[in-house]
Design brief:
Layout lengths: L4 E9 L5 E10 L4 E5 L6 H9 L6 E6 L2 E2 L10 E4 L11 H11 L4 H14 L15 H14 L4 E5 L7 H18 L2 E6 L2 H7 L2 E6 L2 E6 L1 H6 L4 H6 L3 E5 L1 E5 L5 E5 L2 E5 L7 E5 L3 E2 L9 E13 L2 E8 L4 E7 L3 H4 L6 E6 L5 E3 L2
Parallel strand pairs: 3-8, 3-9, 6-7, 7-8
Antiparallel strand pairs: 1-2, 1-4, 4-5, 9-10, 11-15, 12-13, 13-14, 15-21, 16-20, 17-18, 17-20, 18-19
Bound molecules: adenosine-5'-diphosphate.
Length: about 350
């Protein structure tokens, strides 16, 4: 079966010479929720606009349902896009805004009305159908933008930071609705965001981008547990990254690197020179099990926030790292700033990364 969306070596260089995206490869299954995540300017929106057809592609191909759409105009692609500012026509009514895409596609008035009525019902917007779009709240505008994107029954819905304009409360509510809606409709969603929690919380897979390049494509949990590049280790979650010299793999299934803090074992092939340790992987009471990594340090500070204890620990090389532990453990309760301690780490939770 064909993928809903395939990007094959897609790249974009703007007229002024800015290389916004290079060599982007991605295959998306039907019904998948994929987030593009990365800092501002890394090329997320450019990629989304190339998928939608609003931006010329400098090199590579875009396929939808197995069909090459690289040179197909936006309204002829089986996709629709929701813009960051919603791009509603302020002086058109809700009904006119939602029906606009169907009109562009040349749909007859009676069928258009039927489809618009159905989606107005679905989004609880019937009461506002004849109100002008500029007379609505942020949340209502957001729903209209979604309704307008979905009324054309796309195979792929492209969303460019769709929740960026909402306040935190509404954002959470609409995040939930969005996720439920996507499951219910089974439509493929490609969602652009610079908010880590949004990407990790909503999507089946996350594409992490930096400087126009895809760094890693993984399900949220794996991205968190197994960063594959130094950028991802620094960007996702809270990792301590320790540099060293590759020592190869050993019989216990772990590879090793020699660092100024001692030898560190972890999951890798044996040629890596960096170790990434998630903040949650540290224990402050080492179990003295064979193979456990031990790092001596001094507690700089301790903040207990609900169930989580946020510690700052100064290691032997003077760097201060973030450690997250269960707040209710007696050994955590007993810790005082200035205390010497030994952090223990299970090598299975350490990822070795190529520099
Ligand atoms: P993001 O969505 O991740 O914030 P963009 O895709 O908007 O990133 O931008 C990627 C890069 O391309 C940035 O360096 C940005 O300045 C540049 N860029 C975006 N649009 C244009 C344009 N129309 N002309 C020239 N450069 C652009």
């Amino acid at each position: 079966m064909a993928y809903d969306l395939e990007l094959l070596g897609v790249g974009k260089t703007y007229a002024d010479g800015t290389v916004a995206v290079s060599d982007f490869d991605l295959k998306v299954e039907q019904g998948e929720f994929v987030a593009f995540l990365g800092p501002s300017g890394c090329g997320k929106s450019t990629t989304l606009r190339m998928i939608a057809g609003f931006e010329d592609i400098t090199h590579g191909k875009v396929l939808m349902k197995g069909k090459n759409v690289t040179r197909v105009p936006p309204e002829k692609r089986p996709s629709s896009m929701i813009f960051q500012n919603y791009a509603l026509f302020p002086h058109m009514t809700v009904r006119e805004n939602i029906g606009f895409g169907l009109e562009v596609k040349g749909m007859a008035a009676a069928e258009r009305k039927r489809k618009v009525d159905r989606i107005l019902d679905m989004f609880d917007l019937a009461a506002y159908a004849d109100r002008k779009a500029d007379r609505l709240s942020g949340g209502q505008r957001q729903r209209i933008a979604l309704a307008r994107g979905l009324v054309v029954e796309p195979e792929v819905l492209l969303l460019d930071e769709p929740l960026g304009a909402l306040d935190a409360n509404l954002r959470r509510i609409i995040q939930n609705e969005l996720k439920l809606l996507q499951r219910e409709l089974g439509i493929t969603f490609i969602f652009v965001t610079h908010a880590q929690s949004e990407a990790l919380g909503l999507s089946d897979r996350v594409v992490v981008m930096s400087n126009g390049v895809v760094e890693q494509i993984s399900p949220p949990r794996e991205l968190y547990r197994r960063p594959l590049t130094p950028f991802v280790a620094g960007f996702i979650g809270s990792n301590t990254v320790i540099e060293g010299r590759a020592m190869g793999a050993a019989g216990d299934g772990f590879a090793r690197i020699d660092t100024p803090l001692g030898v560190i074992q972890g999951v890798g092939g044996g040629t890596e020179t960096l170790a990434a340790i998630p903040a949650e992987a540290f224990r402050i009471a080492p179990l003295n099990t064979p193979g456990e990594i031990h790092l001596p340090g001094t507690l700089s500070s301790r903040h207990l926030v609900g169930a989580v204890g946020h510690l700052r620990v100064r290691l032997a090389d003077a760097r201060e790292i973030a450690v997250e532990v269960q707040a209710d453990r007696p050994e955590v309760q007993a810790l005082m700033p200035g205390a010497a301690l030994t952090l223990g780490v299970d090598p299975a939770s350490v990822t070795l990364i190529q520099a």
